[in-house]
Design goal:
By secondary structure, the chain is of the alpha/beta class. It has helices spanning about 1-10, 15-25, 30-35, 40-55, 75-85, 90-125, 135-145, 160-165, 180-195, 230-240, 260-265, 275-280, and strands spanning about 30, 55-60, 65-70, 150-155, 170-175, 200, 215-220, 240-250, 285, 290-295, 300-305.
């Protein structure tokens, strides 16, 4: 009862109601909320503090920036979503808020597209060496969605493509990446597609910023070949998988293209099934039969591994 009353008290103020509505549509920084609301930073920060204390918003740090979004797993999360659904769409002040929010999203998109243009040649060059991307994505979707997934972690999310592919079939998804530039692209793609069940976080694949046994499934899509220590990476991925949950790996089979190491910072020239099985065994995961998607000259593999349902 006290939690509910605190939540209701926090919401019952015009600016905080506006903040709640905005953070339900996008992850926003204090400075972005200041720009939208036309209020001072100390005042906006105070409203954010009260909403977080009530469990209505959550905050995550990304470099020097802090982002705020609607909370997912707090006792008042359902209350927040209920109230947001009751906000009148024709309120003139809220309509102006959302117009300003679209301006912020447009600026994010401009910056993300500028970065992507500078680096797109790398992605296109690698894609030309293996089977077409749509076939890989279809195989990945089929593998992941063989079983229901309530919470998914996408390690090394990059542009957030995995989030776009499966958001309609998964309860909630977190995309993790160490690069702020890539997160800016992913966040823009999430905003553009209206994927309210998706979020991105800055974090290291060797120190995942989540507790043990949180996710039903974890995926690494074309990420492991960048890892200095794949064994440690898979141990950390296994740590956050629930007992009985799955790890989905998509990466290259062994190849001889040294240019990928020299020009694109690949630390590994692919992996064979035995290597992946050893990495999974070390992480406490049991590997299933892999799927090979032959290309020219690169073959892409999809490996599925499961955490023992009896582990703690």
């Amino acid at each position: 009862m006290e939690v509910l009353l605190k939540g209701l008290q926090s919401i019952a103020e015009p600016t905080r109601l506006r903040v709640l509505g905005l953070c339900a549509h996008a992850e926003l920084t204090v400075s972005e909320l200041v720009q939208i609301l036309g209020q001072s930073q100390p005042r906006v920060s105070r409203h954010l503090k009260l909403l977080m204390e009530a469990g209505l918003l959550e905050r995550h740090q990304e470099g020097n920036w802090a982002y705020f979004r609607l909370s997912d797993n707090q006792p008042c999360s359902e209350l927040a979503r209920l109230v947001i659904d009751l906000i009148p769409a024709d309120d003139p002040k809220l309509a102006l808020d959302f117009q300003r929010l679209e301006d912020i999203k447009a600026e994010r998109a401009r910056k993300a597209q500028e970065y992507f243009r500078k680096n797109a040649s790398d992605w296109h060059e690698i894609r030309s060496l293996h089977i077409d991307t749509s076939s890989i994505e279809a195989a990945f979707q089929e593998t992941l969605l063989r079983e229901p997934v309530k919470e998914l972690l996408d390690i090394g999310t990059g542009t957030g493509r995995v989030l776009e592919l499966v958001s309609g079939e998964v309860g909630s998804i977190v995309g993790l990446d160490i690069s702020r530039e890539m997160l800016a692209i992913a966040r823009n793609n999430i905003d553009r597609a209206g994927l309210t069940n998706c979020q991105v976080r800055q974090g290291d694949m060797y120190q995942i910023p989540f507790g043990n046994a949180r996710f039903d499934a974890v995926c690494l899509n074309m990420v492991l070949h960048y890892a200095l220590d794949p064994r440690m990476c898979l141990r950390e991925a296994a740590r956050v998988i629930k007992p009985g949950g799955r790890l989905i790996l998509v990466d290259f089979a062994p190849h001889r293209m040294d240019s990928l190491r020299d020009d694109h910072a690949h630390h590994w020239l692919g992996f064979d099934d035995k290597q992946i099985e050893e990495f999974c065994d070390d992480a406490g995961l049991t590997l299933s039969d892999p799927e090979h998607l032959p290309g020219d000259p690169l073959t892409v593999c999809i490996w599925t591994a499961r955490r023992d349902p009896n582990t703690e």
